[in-house]
Specification:
- The structure is a single chain.
- By secondary structure, the protein is of the alpha/beta class.
- The chain contains 10 helices and 13 strands.
- The protein has helices at residues 11-22, 63-70, 84-89, 91-111, 148-167, 192-201, 221-231, 250-261, 285-291, 299-313; strands at residues 2-6, 26-31, 51-55, 74-77, 116-122, 170-176, 178-180, 207-209, 215-216, 218-220, 238-242, 248-249, 268-270.
- It has a 7-stranded parallel β-sheet, sandwiched between helices. A two-stranded parallel ribbon has the order 7-10.
- Strand 1 (2-6), helix 1 and strand 2 (26-31) form a beta-alpha-beta unit.
- It is globular and about 55 Å long.
């Protein structure tokens, strides 16, 4: 298989790239390096001529030309402006990257003759703020996102459906829960697991916003990559939740990671951030039916693997 991975120098994208290359596929990575890192592709370079890297923004008019040259069977679209707060502060910028950039990739895939596009959607935002009794949320839940980022992800799902109807371009959209694991950026607005890991290993105090009882559905990056690989050949024309269905409070997460890092200190608490969801969890049953997928990695073992990776980097 010939694959293109947009955002392939990022945390999830580079892990997917390594998996595809290990299985003998050819991969072209497109990444602007705005948040991705070339160091994430160190192992990919050992694949020789089966690996190609192109530094390019998804908004670039060169996207169709690059995709045509790559002749992909499958395009995995993971490139994004992924910060919800940035989407609130700069909604036009968010739409430029996530809507226009995403549409540019989809149209480029169509023109290049790709048989399928697999897109990273957002299970934490497209469903809005579900009622507690609706958790874990399934794919039949109404989609009323409350952030520009969530709106953009929903729009791209709608474009995929339209392109399948109009042009026969097959697709799968994976609504990801809170993905964590090795290579996640511990700086800035990153996943809380990576933030805790980085600060705990540096001996720095950790902050929790709000009372810490807000919940998230933490899913390990290797399990997420497995879903993307499966979606290349299964789950045609569907949106699938990729999560564990388990709610974990930020307090519980911190205590488990602090214990694993050998840190006795408590976290400090700061005011809750505006717009933060109180609870979140995704029902992965439909992904089991469509992709034959289920999460395999427990939060305990995944957190340990993440800590070990950050420790090795230090």
């Amino acid at each position: 298989m010939r694959a293109v991975v947009t955002g392939g120098a990022g945390f999830i994208g580079s892990t997917l790239t390594d998996r595809l290359l290990t299985e003998g596929h050819s991969v072209t990575v497109l990444d602007s390096l705005a948040t991705g890192r070339l160091s994430n592709l160190d192992s990919a370079r050992s694949a020789g001529d089966r690996f190609t890297f192109v530094e390019l923004d998804v908004r670039s008019p060169e996207i169709p030309e690059i995709l045509a040259a790559a002749k992909p069977d499958v395009v995995f679209h993971l490139a994004a402006q992924a910060d919800v707060r940035v989407s609130v502060e700069r909604p036009l910028f968010d739409a430029e990257v996530n809507v226009l950039g995403g549409l540019n990739v989809i149209e480029g895939a169509r023109l290049a003759g790709a048989r399928k596009v697999v897109v990273a959607s957002s299970g934490g935002t497209i469903y809005g703020d579900p009622a507690p009794e609706d958790l874990p949320v399934d794919e039949q839940h109404s989609q009323h996102p409350i952030s520009p980022y969530g709106v953009a992800k929903k729009v791209i799902d709608d474009y995929l459906h339209a392109f399948q109807f109009l042009h026969g371009l097959n697709y799968a959209a994976l609504a990801l829960a809170n993905v964590y694991g090795p290579r996640q950026d511990p700086h800035g607005e990153a996943g809380v697991v990576a933030i805790f890991a980085g600060r705990l290993l540096r001996g720095e105090g950790c902050r929790i916003f709000g009372d810490g009882e807000q919940t998230r559905d933490f899913v390990f990056v290797d399990d997420v990559v497995e879903a993307f690989v499966r979606a290349a050949d299964r789950g045609d024309g569907v949106l699938c939740n990729i999560g564990t269905g388990v709610e974990t409070s930020v307090n519980s997460l911190y205590r488990a990671m602090a214990d694993a890092a050998g840190v006795a200190a408590n976290a400090t608490y700061e005011p809750a951030r505006a717009g933060e969801l109180a609870r979140s969890a995704l029902n992965p049953a439909f992904a089991g039916t469509q992709l034959g997928w289920a999460p395999k990695t427990s939060l305990e073992s995944g957190a340990l693997a993440t800590l070990d990776w950050f420790r090795a980097q230090a």
